[in-house]
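[Automated response] Your request has been received and processed.

Submitted sequence:
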Amino acid sequence: MNLTEAVLLGAVQGLTEFLPVSSSGHLVLFQHVLGLTQALLAFDISVHVGTLFAVIIYFHKDIAAIFKALVKWLQTLPDTKAASELLAEDREIRMALLIVVGSIPTAILGLIFKEMAETLFSSVAIVGVTLMITGAVLWGTRLIRADGRGIRRFTIRNSLVVGVVQGLAIIPGISRSGATIAAGLYLGLDRKTAARFSFLLSIPAVAGAGILGAGDLFGPAGLPLKIIAAGTLTSCLVGYVSLKLLVWMVSRGRLHFFAPYCMVLGLTALVVSI
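Generated structure:
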């Protein structure tokens, strides 16, 4: 992989990580077109870390508010009743709890699929099928009512469901953002909260994947540092812009606009793989 290819794939990752069209699926397809066959998973992890930075920058105020609320809650722990009431009433503390809970099934599925990752990331046929599944899920969101509940009425069980969905998004072609936002909407969250929960939930998942894949990034068979840096920086910058775009579209109930693209691209990938 040369520097130009790294920048191109970083831009693809940044654009498609937040738009609900599967960044991993697009990376597989573009790497196939470019004839790249080595260190693909390692590079995929590095550009995902770039988009993680974009999420942290975009939601830095939300993240700060959550940490501030958690400190306040920890101070009330000696008073069990007060801590319980605060947990039920404070939406930032509730958000933190649900992120922790939702991250558990994501971590379990990530570890289960880790050994299969290289195979999944080399199959154009798998990407074709899963992109069509993503398209169908997105298309169904057009039927969901605009009003919904806030995070304080979102249950532990609901967060576990979204966490499972996020874990399955390790499969290329399953859009992490599209699947988790759609899951939140299907479970009754309002549009703004569904998007917020989806992206905040992605932080521990992507950070964990980056830590687990660090050996692949910098080991003997890893990519040169300048290639990793170019891809990561590009994915961060492009990702920030696409994140703003998706949040805007979700707030207006237009998530399903991406469904036809996923369906057509998925069908094309299937045809090409035959």
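Summary generated for your ticket: The chain has one domain: 3-273. The CA atoms of residues 73 and 270 lie 51 Å apart.
If you did not submit this request, please reply to this message.
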